[in-house]
Amino acid sequence: MTNRFRRFAVLPPLSDLSRRMVAAPHPSRRRGHALVPVMVVLFLAAFWPSFGADKADMESFNMVWSTIKAKHWNLDEIGVDWDAVGRKYRPLAEKTHNRIEMRKVMRDMINELGQSHFNVYGGGDFEKLENSLADFTSGGNGTMGFEVALVGKELFVTKIHGDLVAADSGLKVGSRITGHSGKDLAPLIAKITGLYSDVAQGRLYINRTLNSLFQDTPGLSKKLTFTSNGRGKTHTFKVHKPLGTPKTILNLPMVHYRYEDALLADNIGYIHFNIFIPEVKTQFDNETLPKFADADGLIIDLRGNGGGIGFIAVALSNRILAKQSKLGTMINSGGSLNFAVFPQKPIFDKPVAILIDGGSASTSEIMAAGLQDLKRARIFGTRSAGAALPSMIEHLPNGDRFQYAIADYVSVSGRQVEGQGVDPDEVTPHSKAALLAGKDAALEAARSWIKAGGQL
Amino acid sequence: MNRKFLKTQLVFLSFLALFSLTLSATDPVALMDKAAEASGGDSFKELESMVVHGNISMAQQMNGQIEMTMKESGKSKVKMTLTGNGMQMVAEQGCDGENCYDSNPMMGARLLQGQEKEQFKISNNFKAAYEWREFYKDLEYQGEAMVGERKTHKIKMKTSAGIDMTQYIDVESSLLLRMDMVTIGPMGQMNIESYFEDYKDIYKGIQYPMKSKMTMMGQEVLITFDKVEVNQPVPDSMFELPPSLKAQVQ
Predict the structure, then answer these.
(1) Which of A247, A318, A329 sits opposite B188 (nearest CB)?
(2) What was the pLDDT predicted at A11?
(3) ∠ Cα A413 B182 A334 (to 5°)
(4) CATH (residue range A245-451)
(5) CA dist., res. A143 & res. A302, Å (int)
(6) What is the ipTM of this complex?
(7) Which residue from A184, B3, B201, B203 has the highest number of Cβ atoms inside 10 Å of its Cβ?
(8) Cα–Cα–Cα angle for B14, B15, B19, rounded to 5 degrees
């Protein structure tokens, strides 16, 4: 299993660059559960020979502790005595024997904050899940050409990418996938949903992990079992090169950027992109807006979009809002930074709908919450991830990466998006009936609203 | 008798001298004047334009080049070419002497207003230290404070637009080592700390900091200048507002 696979499939998914990308506490390292491993560690410590932690690992521990001490904006307000936390975890760190143990101590310490966007990336926890996933995919970022989502406990195809899925395969939107590589998927789905069910941003992890089952090394073939139109079928699918253009942004692992726009049959513009980077703004301004000049409305599909650079949400909103305003405010000890919108002509002044789901995080949420608060867009789909804090990612001396939030974020109406997510104005989850009819419930609802005049 | 009187006079004069020294050491106006003198004094009268080239370094390995062009009458332009890990952006800010703007491909062009405008004007006016009375008021001496290992005079002041500012002036050299300000504008309330070091004589005793570090919202921006051109011809057209803003102003 490659590191890349581990990173995207099991570890908290990458999302906002910020100001940056998102991640949340590792499920098994949340505050409530942290006591058990800590007690075990404390008990066993007496029996361990005193090898002491590796120097680079210890430096990493110190860097994590001191960074949070220096950069966290309101430790007092959230009631965390960070000095005491340091005193608690430093002795544990000094007794670690390897990087995995040190990573665990650092994560336990970080999760005393009880906030997302603080994490140490590196190897993997959740080893059992990783091992289970390894039965289905060997990692890699190639795609089988479709996306999936859970409806109840069943896995349905929700989107087919172009002609990447062979027409004679019978797989289409609404197909229910039941088997993968000769194995029944149900136990794995149960394991994934069970593991993430009580985790903040769990919807985000479930979405990413399930879709990662259909990603692998390009060139491989995978046998899937599914039902379409009530008929069971097994077909071997090719793994294609990843969609989009490879991009390396800031300190983050490479991502494949995708942007698509289309004028739908009912003269409604539709755009979808998977990350907020400057290219989105360039394409939106230069290609999409001219194309949609006479459209009756615009649908911005942020489903599965884990975030990106925060001010790109502002840069897009500059073309949607006619008056100077703000999407929200980032607050830290250095002041408050408004996500201020300064209208840029030409302004798209027709109705705007935004689609979100559990995979919409960070900058996606900042944009959706802001335009919802400003009564400029109607939101469709399902509740977003609730992972909105802006964060930075730094390299630790031992090679791991440390992500930490640098500020708090509130929407323009004062809502805390962190942990809560953005609730759609119209909750329109995928439904079995809609998918079987080849329809996308959220997209259809947004189209209907725009066709009805798009009143807010 | 005369000798006694002389002695008394000497004691009194010594006391007066000492008292005056103490007074001037804590008189913010005198300290600002001294800082103006140390920064170059009347040589500023001969300064007509200045172009400074350097490098800028930000968090997340965002780096780039910076070019600051300043001319008399408050004309200025700052051009930054930022690159880093797959991103590239050219951002500009400037003043035509009257109006100031901010422009970049992501956010478009906009006029700066209020404190945001004044902060830019002060930061990019090469005569701000010399003609400090035009910019600062309500000076208050707040004692000595350390900036790194240097002892400084801490002086609190207000700008015309109401920006709260604190300057830290080196006790020994009388040069500005640190400046804190809090600006309130459409981008929010920013606490900005700027540190200046590596002063060089750029023209007839005028001192310019070749290195500066700015901390804003917990993020650091480092600027290192490597070339300063003084009194080179700079056309006024360079400071014109972007076309979209010209119409707005008219």
Answers:
(1) A329
(2) 38
(3) 65
(4) 3.90.226.10
(5) 20
(6) 0.79
(7) B203
(8) 120
- CA dist A156 → A147, A173, A258, A295, B206 (Å): 8, 8, 22, 31, 72
* Distance between A59 CA and the closest CA of chain B, angstroms: 20
Q: Range of B127's domain?
A: 2-249
Closest CA to A139 of A234, A209, A188, A203: A209
**Cross-chain Cβ contact B60/A324 below 8 Å:** no
How close A109 comes to chain B (CA, Å)?
A: 22
Q: CA A379, A145, A445: angle at the middle one, nearest 5?
A: 20
Q: What is the mean pLDDT of residues A242-257?
A: 80
Q: Chain B residues with CB inside 8 Å of A332's CB?
A: 217-218
Instruction: Give the DSSP H/E element, type plus range, for residue B60.
Output: none
Whole-angstrom distance, CA of residue A429 vs CA of residue A205: 17
Nearest Cβ partner for B217 among A278, A311, A332? A332
> Which distant-in-sequence residues (6+ apart) come within 8 Å of B156 by Cβ?
B139, B140, B142, B164, B165, B166
In chain B, which stretches have pLDDT less than 70? 1-24, 60-61, 85-87
Q: How many other C-beta atoms lie within 10 A of the C-beta of residue A226?
A: 23
What's residue A400's pLDDT? 80
Terminal-residue alpha carbon distance, chain B: 79
Q: Hey, are the CB atoms on A247 and B86 less than 8 Å from each other?
A: yes
Share of chain B above pLDDT 90, in %: 66
Task: State how far the Cα of A320 lies from the Cα of A344, in Å rounded to an integer.
Answer: 9
In this structure, which CATH number among 3.40.309.10, 2.30.42.10, 3.40.1620.10, 1.10.10.10 belongs to the domain A130-238?
Answer: 2.30.42.10
Asked if A330 is an interface residue toward chain B (Cβ–Cβ < 8 A), one would say yes
Contact B60 A20 (CB under 8 A): yes
For A274, residues 6+ apart whose C-beta sits below 8 A from its C-beta are A244, A255, A256, A257, A258, A304, A305, A306
CB B168 within 8 A of CB B147: yes
Name which of B217, B219, B221, B245 to mutate to probe chain A: the one with the most chain A Cβ atoms within 10 A of its Cβ: B217
**Portions of chain A given CATH number 2.30.42.10:** 130-238
A124 has a pLDDT exceeding 60? no
Measured between CB atoms, does A318 come within 8 Å of chain B? yes
Q: Can you read off the two tokens belonging to residue A389?
A: 């804090």
- A392 CB within 8 Å of a chain B CB: yes
How many separate domains does chain B show? 1
Residue type at position A181 = S
User: Between the CA of residue A230 and those of A176, A227, A436, what are the distances in Å?
Assistant: 9, 6, 9
Q: Work out the minimum CA distance from B65 to partner chain A, whole angstroms.
A: 18
pLDDT confidence bin for A218, thresholds 50/70/90: very high
Identify the CATH number of the domain in which residue B220 sits: 2.50.20.10
User: Which residue intervals of chain A bear CATH 3.90.226.10?
Assistant: 245-451
Q: How many angstroms separate the CA atoms of A25 and A56, rounded?
A: 23
Say yes or no for a CB contact (<8 Å) between B217 and A314.
Answer: no
pLDDT one-digit tens code per residue, A129-138: 777 888 899 8
C-alpha to C-alpha distance for A42 and A54, rounded to whole angstroms? 19
